[in-house]
């Protein structure tokens, strides 16, 4: 299957970093945004305010018209925040019924109430006949936009589709691996943001590297326990979309979730912290669904629960941290 033209839905940092990469591979790229101001600004300046040092290729076309963004596309990239995936899928479905392109989602989240992943939401809204893949891993847009070495996973139950996505996005600087466990890849991408928030709170409280290592390790254990209960392949958790993405999100200066957590640890309310970050903090969106899943499967998730107590129950970060440390004695592999 030869892909020549690609539609990118969303002009945030990740969508634009990938749009640039694809345009530089000589694909015909059209970027859609619901925000007219973004369309005008990026079209004229060829710059993105949150991607310093990146120049938007002249070949990229910007539009607010969905039909033109989707016309004759062989691949459509969903790069909108997780909370807008369902609305976007519903909007684009009428324009893709005749020619069904490969759909790739890079949003990371779990839908509140349904516990559906992003690819499952797209399939739910758009119906049968579409091949949906997820692209996920330790990939800060700020580095991909500058062609810094990066690895990522193209996941799809249909491995041939995953290979097409791999070929489409692979460059000398972006190495793409394939994985059939799309549910595991997407679940890791959602829950690692929750753990990264907790690590950020620890940083904001002034705790050191010991605490950071503990939260990352025990947080990964929560991801593993909950993910395997959902039927995900346990090897996925040891890969790029699992421990790889958790490490980068929990430790990087580029991480919105870590930054938001730091601010909360310093005394900001969650709402004020998000405002200060100035971009979507997906861990806060995913947290209610993670707690719902933990309850459903009767799985203890102490790190996530600590975060929920702080964000949704008004517990002070220092008090929540003390309570986490004072839990009853346990063996490690439980």
Give descriptors for this structure.
8 strands; 15 helices; eight-stranded mixed beta sheet; globular; 334 residues; alpha/beta; single chain
Instruction: Assign the structural class, choosing from mainly alpha, mainly beta, alpha/beta, alpha+beta, or little secondary structure.
Output: alpha/beta
Shape: globular
End-to-end CA span: 46 Å
Task: Describe the sheet with the most strands.
Answer: 8 strands, mixed
Q: Classify the beta-strand content into a percent band.
A: 5-15%
Instruction: Report low-confidence residues grouped into runs of 5 or more.
Output: none
User: Portion of residues in helices?
Assistant: 40-55%
Question: How many β-strands, per DSSP?
Answer: 8
Rounded radius of gyration (Å) = 20 Å
Average pLDDT, rounded to a whole number, is: 96
**Sheet with the most strands: spatial strand order:** 3-2-1-4-5-6-7-8
Task: Spell the H/E element sequence.
Answer: EHEHEHEHEHEHEHEHHHHHHHH
How would you describe what is shown here?
The chain is 51% helix and 11% strand. By secondary structure, the protein is α/β, with parallel strands linked by helices. The protein has an eight-stranded mixed sheet, sandwiched between helices. Helix 8 runs parallel beside helix 11, helix 9 packs antiparallel against helix 10 and helix 13 crosses helix 14. The protein is globular, with a radius of gyration of 20 Å. It starts with a strand and ends in a 9-residue tail after the last helix. The mean pLDDT is 96.
């Amino acid at each position: 299957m030869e892909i020549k033209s690609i539609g990118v839905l969303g002009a945030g940092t990740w969508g634009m970093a990938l749009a640039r990469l694809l345009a530089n591979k000589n694909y015909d790229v059209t970027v859609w945004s619901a925000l007219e101001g973004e369309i005008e600004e990026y079209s004229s300046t060829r710059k993105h305010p949150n991607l310093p040092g990146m120049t938007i290729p002249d070949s990229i076309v910007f539009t607010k018209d969905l039909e033109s963004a989707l016309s004759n596309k062989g691949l459509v990239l969903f790069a909108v925040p997780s909370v807008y995936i369902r609305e976007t899928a519903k909007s684009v479905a009428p324009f893709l019924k005749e020619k069904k392109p490969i759909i790739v989602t890079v949003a990371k989240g779990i839908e509140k109430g349904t516990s559906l992943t992003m690819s499952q939401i797209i399939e739910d809204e758009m119906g049968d006949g579409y091949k949906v893949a997820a692209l996920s891993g330790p990939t800060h847009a700020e580095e991909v936009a500058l062609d810094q070495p990066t690895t990522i996973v193209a996941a799809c139950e249909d491995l041939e589709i995953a290979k097409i996505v791999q070929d489409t996005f692979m460059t000398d600087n972006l190495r793409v691996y394939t994985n059939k466990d799309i549910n595991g890849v997407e679940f890791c991408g959602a829950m690692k943001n929750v753990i990264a928030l907790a690590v950020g709170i620890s940083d904001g409280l002034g705790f050191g590297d010991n605490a950071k290592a503990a939260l990352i390790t025990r947080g990964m254990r929560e991801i593993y326990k909950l993910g395997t209960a959902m039927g995900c392949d346990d090897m996925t958790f040891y890969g790029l979309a699992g421990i790889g993405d958790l490490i980068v999100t929990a430790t990087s200066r580029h991480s919105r979730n870590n930054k938001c957590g730091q601010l909360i640890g310093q005394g900001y309310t969650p709402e004020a912290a998000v405002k200060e970050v100035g971009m979507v903090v997906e861990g806060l969106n995913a947290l209610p669904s993670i707690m719902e899943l933990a309850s459903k499967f009767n799985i203890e998730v102490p790190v996530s629960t600590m975060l929920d107590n702080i964000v949704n129950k008004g517990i002070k970060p220092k008090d929540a941290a003390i309570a986490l440390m004072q839990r009853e004695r346990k063996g490690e592999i439980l």
